[in-house]
Amino acid sequence: MALSVHLVSADAEVWSGEASLVVAKTVMGEIGFMPGHEPVLAILAEGQVRITQLDGEKIVANAQDGFLSLEADELTIVAGNAALIA
Predict the structure, then answer these.
(1) How far apart are CA 62 and CA 48, in angstroms?
(2) What is the DSSP string of 17-79?
(3) Contact status, residue 53 vs residue 17, Cβ threshold 8 Å
(4) 4 three-class SS
(5) What is the pLDDT along the chain (86 residues), one digit of tens a residue?
(6) Are 20 and 58 in contact, with CB atoms under 8 Å apart?
(7) What residue ranges do the domains of the chain occupy?
(8) How many Cα atoms within 13 Å fall on the side-chain side of residue 81?
């Protein structure tokens, strides 16, 4: 099982793919998502989104001003500003 992840900013898709774990910062604190997680709708706080791909490689992005939605192992993160960290 895997999460289907879509990280988008206001003007472009920043990253999409499959992941085994995603950790994001919301206004209520950090939250981690794995396949099978209950549905969630949350407001993003300024901070990092950390994505662990199926092969263990990690992707890190800064994101702010948006929301995230998870349902049926599909995680969509929509941010006003988002960029990958090199």
Answers:
(1) 5
(2) EEEEEEEEEETTEEEEE-TTPPPEEEEEEEEEEEEEETTS-EEEEEEEEEEEEEETTEEEEEE
(3) yes
(4) strand
(5) 899 999 999 999 999 999 999 999 999 999 999 999 999 999 999 999 999 999 999 999 999 999 999 999 999 999 999 999 97
(6) no
(7) 3-84
(8) 8
pTM of the predicted protein model: 0.94
Please state which CATH number belongs to domain 3-84. 2.60.15.10
Distance CA 26, CA 69 (A): 11
Residues in the chain: 86
Q: Tell me how far apart the alpha carbons of residues 36 and 26 are, in angstroms, rounded to a whole number.
A: 20
End-to-end CA distance of the chain: 28
pLDDT, position 86: 73
d(CA 51, CA 68): 14
